Amino acid sequence: MNPAKKAAKKTARPAARKVAKAPASAPYEEGKWAHVFTRKSGERRYWLVKSEPEVFSFDDLQKAPKKTTGWDNIRNSTARNFLRDGMKVGDLAFFYHSNCDEPGVVGIVKIVKEGYPDSTAFDKEDPHFDADSDPAKPRWYMVDVKFERKFRHTITLATLRQHEQRALKGLALLSRGNRLSITPVSAAHWKLILDLAK
Q: What is the H or E stretch that residue 73 is in?
């Protein structure tokens, strides 16, 4: 379901609070992504999540029980912070097919459960087992996402790059060297991409 997911497709596994600021101990609190961890009461945020379609596609999500799955196996600390501290119930995310013939945004998912410990990190049989992740003090987190809407056509990476210098300037997905599987999307960028989906 994300680029790091084990090769064999897996049946999908199946909570909101006001956030004033990220935990004081979080080093990213004053860094590049500081704005992601603060929001007004009732504010909805937007995201983009990547998945290789040969591993877990948007159609797989649509076929999953309750059209819902746990977004697990994330082993990057920045993406983990987004899962643990950034995403909230009701937030929306673009589902992006990566590492395929036609990479691009194919639909929308909704965050239906907030960050909780990623159980695959504790499973010795799982390829993404992390011996240093203690259940009493988890290192890795996940959220639950639910199928919301499939676009009539893929908003391809090539199409997005056509707007890179103006309307989509600053979109993390288009940043050189960015390999994060989860990134924030501004409200303005969200609206522009929705318009491209019409």
A: none
Distance CA(48)–CA(97), nearest Å, equals 10
Q: Residue 34 carries which side chain, given as an amino acid letter?
A: A
**Size (the chain), residues:** 198
- Give me the residues paired with residue 104 across strands: 97, 156
**pLDDT tens digits for 151-198?**
999 999 999 999 999 999 999 999 988 889 999 999 999 999 999 999
| pLDDT greater at residue 89 or residue 13 | 89
Rounded Cα–Cα distance for residues 170 and 167 (Å): 9
Residue 13's CB is within 10 A of a number of other CB atoms, namely 15
SS3 145: strand
Strand partners, 110: 92, 146
Q: Distance between the two ends of the chain, CA-based, in angstroms?
A: 26
pTM of the predicted model as reported, rounded to 2 decimal places: 0.84
Count the Cβ atoms, other than its own, within 10 Å of residue 96: 23
**Measuring CA to CA, which residue among 131, 20, 167, 30 is closest to residue 85?**
20
| 128 contact partners, CB below 8 Å, separation of at least 6 | 4, 6, 72, 73, 75, 120, 121
